[in-house]
UniProtKB/TrEMBL annotation, chain A:
Residues 328-396 form the 4Fe-4S ferredoxin-type domain. Residues 91-310 form the LUD domain. Keywords: 4Fe-4S, Electron transport, Iron, Iron-sulfur, Metal-binding, Repeat, Transport. GO terms for molecular function: 4 iron, 4 sulfur cluster binding. The keyword Repeat applies. This is L-lactate dehydrogenase complex protein LldF. Gene3D superfamilies: Alpha-helical ferredoxin (1.10.1060.10), NagB/RpiA/CoA transferase-like (3.40.50.10420).
TrEMBL record, chain B:
GO terms for cellular component: cytosol. It comes from the Bacteria. It comes from Fodinibius sediminis. InterPro entries: Cys_rich_dom (IPR004017). GO terms for molecular function: oxidoreductase activity. This is L-lactate dehydrogenase complex protein LldE. Residues 4-83, 134-218 form the Cysteine-rich domain. It holds the Pfam family CCG.
From TrEMBL, chain C:
Gene3D superfamilies: NagB/RpiA/CoA transferase-like (3.40.50.10420). Residues 46-217 form the LUD domain. Pfam families: LUD_dom. This is L-lactate dehydrogenase complex protein LldG. It comes from Fodinibius sediminis. InterPro entries: FTHF_cligase-like_sf (IPR024185), LUD_dom (IPR003741), NagB/RpiA_transferase-like (IPR037171). Coiled coil: none annotated.
Amino acid sequence: MPEHNTGADWINVDFISVTMKNKKKTPTFEETAKAYLSNTQLRRNIGHATHTIREKRETVVGEMPDWEILREAGSQLKKRVMRHLDDYLLQLEASVQEAGGKVHWAGDAEEANRIIADLVKEQQAEEVVKVKSITTDEIGLNQALAGEGIRALETDLAELIVQLAEDEPSHILVPAIHKNRSEIRELFRKKLNQQELSDRPEDLAEAARLYLRKKFLNAKVGISGANFAVADTGTVAVVESEGNGRMCTTLPETLITVMGIEKIIPRWRDFEVFMQLLPRSSTAERMNPYNSFWTGVTEGDGPREFHLVLLDNGRTNVLADEVGRQTLNCIRCSACLNVCPVYERTGGHAYNSVYPGPIGAILTPQLRGLDDEGAASLPYASTLCGACYEVCPVKINIPEVLVHLRGKIVDRKKREGGLKTKTDPEHVGMRWMGRAFTKRSRYERAQKIARLGQKIFVRDGTISNLPGELSGWTAMRDLKPIPKQTFREWWGDRDE
Amino acid sequence: MQISLFITCFNDTLFPETGKAMVQLLERLGHQVDFPLEQTCCGQMHYNTGYQEETIPLVRRFVEVFGEAEAVVAPSASCVGMVREFYSKVAERAGDPELANAVEEVIPRVFELSEFLVKELGIEDVGAYYPHRVTYHPTCHSLRVLHVGDAPLILLRNVRGIDLVELPAAEQCCGFGGTFAVKNADTSMAMLGDKIRHIKGTGAEVCAAADNSCLMHIGGALKRQRSGVEPVHLAEILASTEETE
Amino acid sequence: MSSAKDNILGSIRAALREVPAEEQPEDIEVPRDYRKQGEGGVIDIVERFAERVGEYKATVNRIHEEELKDTIAESCRGEGVEALAVPDGFPGEWLPDDLTLLQDKKDAPLSHRELDRSDGVITTCALGIAQTGTLVLDAGAGQGRRVLTLLPDYHLCIIWESQIVELVSEGFRYFEASVEQEGPPLTFISGPSATSDIELSRVEGVHGPRRLEVLIVSR
Ligand code: SF4
């Protein structure tokens, strides 16, 4: 059984190195998935979690008669934003500044981390409190700050667990879903110095509350991500359950918020769409416990300084692809993860990215580029069953983007050519069949050749052992041999 | 009605019985059936694997072969899904507006068997007889691309002698996914394992579906496990009568 | 820094080359025919609000205005509150006489530590949303700064029946003008702080108040 943290270090190290344009390869999905598939505890936990949230989501979505209209509205609003992103960003910058905030632009992870580290140093803070943000995971902020002698403390219960265990999150919404209560108790005993601790979730939560309360009260700087930012008013929103988001965004004197440039919505009113779509799709609640909306700084209430860091880090590349562009609509609800039959079996770590599941399978390769072999394996980590598209609250056609990316990967392989491509069995097979299908006579001949060719594999009317790439099939399944007569031969006989 | 069969390369080569069943069934219902011999493959495997350039001649071929047909009916939800979902995209890729037009023209006349019977012809009882315990697996493409809904179940419920049992977690993918089953064989098997468990739990003798591709995958494991459950295409059940049984 | 900005804007414009120059954002149609105005009568709406807040494991009490003072005193006693934080502008006549009141004043704000040591906080609110059982605070009189409802472990919130709207859309529209003009910080509260991070079993209360009590008041 693999330890979850065995792979932990390289995942993030690699991600930073990739974002820093240092081309290092990540392992492929199939390589990593293999190990996680035999982790029984992970399988059970993830299976339980995804099924529970899936069913709850169906119930709360079922009580919305206008759900499909809201989805369409959400999708169109995002489309509006993407097609006019430059104007919206400038508008956001102006409105945040007008409300007393400062805006910073970061082209990549390195720039963003530099900006944030400098801001923290200005406040002479050695420790900052953070509310869960995948964007900051994406840029490897915690490691970058550590390199500058600043400790970034995760304050979500799950993120705290992951951080203390020096592990990686496995789910967007419930990052520690791969850990069970006894493991968490052991961890808290060791790291929080809590000897007398039961494994009841209430007690574990209480231990985290006590530990973090002190940290919150002493923090000079808070760091958050953003779920949305309103271009028109400069209002930023953080959606959460535990209250640590409220802590991080109200207690410290300085608040730094990092957001991908795609998180914009045009107007305040548009929350009536997104704040209906997000909670029901995400935690499967009518509304999650806390939503904070703030506009710049307010005298006497909350931080005195507010910094908004706008991050590109590959997003403009995604924008440039007309089919792939819709990926930027994502509001990170994780509904697609919870319905995905692949994710349900492999868990999040198999994706080797901070973005797991179906959304990760389309976002990661677009952000990192297709020359990263690991990223390029992700679009193939799907059966195209369409469950993700059906639930996505902003109607991202994930199967369409997956197939589109596969096309780009193959086109690239063809362009590169070379011996490796020419001898690749899939490539050879596809070419051969492609030709066969373009002409009836060739096709009929191919049918006959295949029927003859299979003879050496058929035993007692079935094929149980194939060589090479196809052995993946017969390792666990029998294959039905081609019968003596094709349909067209039968039809021909019947016509006579 | 004059119905053109689009048997698909997969069924033509590997599952001729399904095609024969289509012919028997549609003729029994009083329709004329033809099978244009120039047809080959819809291009789905190429397209979904990323060999999209290779799909262009196949789309061209499809509209040439079926352009004039009154109705095109196929025993494969995923091949019909390919036509409906992606043919216009292929035409766009080819940069050929004429092909795009031809595709738009033909798409509304292409149907999967169960949706054709229930939604187009309005038939719910095809007069079949099939005295077996059957469970039905709704394939992903029939559900989420074609949205056939419960058309196949309506047809099955009206089959005489049948003992139709509900499949738990029916809407979960079986793990086939074309090249996925080979490229990600381990994950595919993990998915298939659960599907097989559910099928066996029903105590059915027969597992039916509207796609032979998924059935080949499911059936491959059923056979390997000597489970005694037979995969059978929906068309073959609907074609059965007292005489054939 | 301006160069990062120029680069990003430049890449965006290059990425969007196919978007026609004359296209306006509004040209992309957004359907707005989802429910925007509730159809329930006042009685239904209040009923639903009470029910949904209750489903989040908050304590809900429906009372008449005249019972306010007694109910508040009783609730505080029941929760073992001795030191109660009170925001600026909260009606003094409702407050119990036998408690230590920690009054938060604009010119003399309570420190974070004082709040942390308090046993609870009492506030009014700006709006209630029945569809989702949500309380909205906009830092107005009687509601106080955001931190007031964050550090104490018990939050007692008072809402008039007339403050409850039916739908989420109505809720957001209600604040549209004030956000556009003054931009007050808004907090939406739906039940007490909660987590499901450990094996997906729900625990009420991690960082925010672990106990939320709502008094729905009729006149
Ligand atoms: S892709 Fe859609 S379903 Fe998946 S996380 Fe993003 S918004 Fe949610």
